[in-house]
């Protein structure tokens, strides 16, 4: 069987022109180099070198084998370099998908810091709905998903990233904007921007208002908090949204106030259960957790009812 060491010796002898030169390059004794060459010739049943005037002359067959060996050895060098990059977290691939609430500002900031320290990493980042993200995690299409559902699926491992309270997004010139916090009954008769009926948060919002007997003037339904805030910025109404999306519209005609009774948004990390987490992912997640933990959100005054 031909070994990599034999091919290394072949290349070294051809490149240095002698057994002596090859032995120095490879840090082997001259007898060891000669033995490896002889073993290689015996295995492949070809004459690789002829001795002419006390020097070795490579045969055409040796040069052809040298060319192929070079490709192989360079490839192995690349593999070794890649393995070192993977160990040092300077290379590899990472695929992440997030819902828009965290995918507009928080995630890009974390991704930016992560990639500036690891410019060779191949990073895939997409913003999708929680349902689509869950599908991608189940099918192993991504390494990490960030969603807002309470997931119960055999193919998914979940971890809470952060739980925050919903806020009331109001036009900056709205009379209620002067208040430190907004109560549900403050929104009686107010023009209200709601979410699609399939949203779990919207179910909680509707149930809360219905249980309190509060009637709103629902002017329309949107897909996510960012869309709701866009309409709020146009003065079309108020909305109950996640605080991350509301913060994106600060200074753009939208103010966010704590809302009571409290409605929680729980952001989840989703991992494919059948895929072992890479070193890159294990380095990225703590950065994401720290950023999510420290991201500022409106907080109700201490004496605000729960």
TrEMBL record:
SUPFAM superfamilies membership: Periplasmic binding protein-like II, Winged helix' DNA-binding domain
* One Pfam match: LysR_substrate
Q: Where is the HTH lysR-type domain?
A: 2-59
Q: Which GO terms describe its biological process?
A: positive regulation of gene expression
Question: Which of UniProt's keywords are assigned here?
Answer: DNA-binding, Transcription, Transcription regulation
Source domain of life is Bacteria
InterPro entries found in the cross-reference section: LysR_HTH_N, LysR_subst-bd, NocR_PBP2, WH-like_DNA-bd_sf, WH_DNA-bd_sf
Q: Which GO terms describe its molecular function?
A: DNA-binding transcription factor activity; sequence-specific DNA binding
Tell me its family. Belongs to the LysR transcriptional regulatory family.
Write the protein's name: DNA-binding transcriptional LysR family regulator
The record lists the organism as Stella humosa
């Amino acid at each position: 069987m031909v070994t990599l060491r034999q091919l290394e010796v072949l290349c070294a002898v051809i490149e240095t022109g002698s057994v002596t030169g090859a032995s120095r390059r490879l840090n082997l004794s001259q007898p060891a180099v000669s033995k490896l060459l002889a073993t290689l010739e015996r295995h492949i049943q070809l004459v690789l070198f002829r001795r002419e005037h006390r020097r070795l002359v490579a045969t055409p067959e040796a040069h052809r084998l040298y060319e192929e060996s070079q490709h192989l050895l360079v490839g192995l060098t690349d593999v070794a370099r890649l393995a070192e990059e993977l160990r040092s977290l300077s290379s590899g691939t990472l695929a992440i998908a997030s819902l828009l609430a965290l995918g507009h500002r928080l995630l890009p900031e974390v991704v930016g810091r992560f990639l500036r320290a690891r410019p060779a990493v191949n990073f895939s980042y997409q913003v999708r709905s929680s349902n689509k993200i869950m599908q991608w995690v189940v099918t192993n299409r991504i390494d990490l998903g960030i969603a807002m559902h309470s997931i119960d699926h055999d193919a998914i491992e979940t971890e809470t990233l952060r739980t925050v309270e919903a806020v009331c997004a109001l036009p900056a010139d709205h009379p209620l904007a002067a208040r430190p916090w907004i109560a549900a009954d403050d929104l009686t008769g107010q023009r209200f921007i709601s979410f699609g009926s399939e949203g779990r948060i919207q179910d909680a919002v509707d149930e809360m208002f219905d249980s309190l007997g509060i009637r709103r003037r629902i002017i329309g339904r949107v897909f996510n908090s960012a869309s709701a805030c866009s309409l709020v910025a146009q003065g079309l109404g108020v909305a109950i949204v996640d605080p991350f999306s509301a913060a994106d519209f600060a200074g753009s005609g939208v103010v966010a106030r704590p809302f009571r009774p409290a409605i929680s948004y729980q952001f989840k990390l989703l991992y494919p259960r059948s895929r072992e987490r890479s070193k890159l992912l294990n380095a990225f997640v703590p950065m994401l957790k720290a950023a999510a933990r420290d991201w500022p959100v409106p907080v109700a005054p201490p004496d605000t009812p729960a």
